[in-house]
Amino acid sequence: MADRISELQERFLALVQREIGADSVVIDLEGSPQRGHEIRADLGDGRVLVCRFDAPIEGENALSRRLFMLVGSFTELTTEPVSERVPRPPVARSLHDELRIVAQRARATDALVIDATSPIVWGAASREVLKHHQADDDSGYLPAETDTEGLPEASLGALAEVRILPNLASLHRGRQLRYQSQSDDCGLVAHSFGGIYILVLVYDGVFDELRAERSLADAIPRIQRLVAALPPLEPTPAPQAGVVALRSRKRR
Predict the structure, then answer these.
(1) What mean pLDDT comes out for the span 112-128?
(2) Beta bridge mates, 187
(3) Can you tell me the distance from the alpha carbon of 196 to that of 228, in angstroms, rounded to the nearest whole number?
(4) Cα distance between residue 157 and residue 63, in whole Å
(5) Helices 91-106 + 60-73 axis angle, to 10
(6) How many whole angstroms separate alpha carbon 198 and alpha carbon 179?
(7) Could you give the angle at which helices 91-106 and 209-229 cross, rounded to 10 degrees?
(8) Percentage above 70 pLDDT, the chain
(9) What pLDDT was estimated at residue 75?
(10) What is the CATH number of domain 106-251?
């Protein structure tokens, strides 16, 4: 049993280091004081999970919420399920945090998840989680009357360009979308997932294509799980959805 716990612990520490992007991850048994560039999570039995970074932490709040989610899902490290003591954030908040992280890693101005079959914008790094919540829905998501409300102009232009792509209608039949375009003043990369969803990175000019592709490939599995956890919606299409001026782009 001890060997099994040790193996699980090693796997867990490696998982946390990879997901959080920390330079090292340890379990503190002595209650040492917090030092600079650290994110911590209480394991509930006197132990503290410590993620250490060699440089100032970008997106510290989002990474802290992700760490709590990881701790809550790995209950075999403790005698009491951690998920009972660490409240999980609403799904929409977690999705928003993931989009902000992928935008930062890809050096994009925005990251959005849209639906190929409706005008829904499921999440956007540039827009805070919607303020209204249903009492019986812990997802934290309730669509606005206009899903594009509050999005920057560059994001609206990128969404409009993606929504008129000719192969969008074939996604539900198992086709995949891989698309990118860029010019001196704007750019985008779009990858489909889950049959009908599209993750879009928005840029304000020429971008590093390899960095964008790596960031999308890394983020899509987590984002797909979060989108799948959101409640189903049947919105009334907004008349203005997708109707914005498009700027000329150079396709790659």
Answers:
(1) 86
(2) 182, 203
(3) 11
(4) 30
(5) 130
(6) 10
(7) 180
(8) 73
(9) 52
(10) 3.30.450
CA distance 122 to 114: 6
Sign of CA dihedral 228, 232, 234, 239: negative
Domain boundaries, the chain: 2-84, 106-251
Q: Whole-angstrom Cα distance, residue 30 to residue 49?
A: 11
Listed in order, strand segments (DSSP E) in 147-226 are 178-182, 187-193, 197-203
Q: Which is higher by pLDDT, 74 or 240?
A: 74
Put simply, whether the predicted model's pTM sits higher than 0.70 gets the answer: no
Q: Look at residue 43 and tell me whether its pLDDT is greater than 80.
A: no
Long-range contacts of 88-91 (CB under 8 A, 24+ apart): 89/65, 89/140, 90/129, 90/133, 90/138, 90/139, 90/140, 90/141, 91/138, 91/139, 91/140, 91/141, 91/226, 91/229, 91/230
Could you give the angle at which helices 2-20 and 60-73 cross, rounded to 10 degrees? 160
Of residues 38 and 47, which shows the higher confidence score?
Answer: 38
Sign of CA dihedral 156, 142, 126, 220: negative
Q: Give the separation between CA 155 and CA 158, rounded to whole angstroms.
A: 5
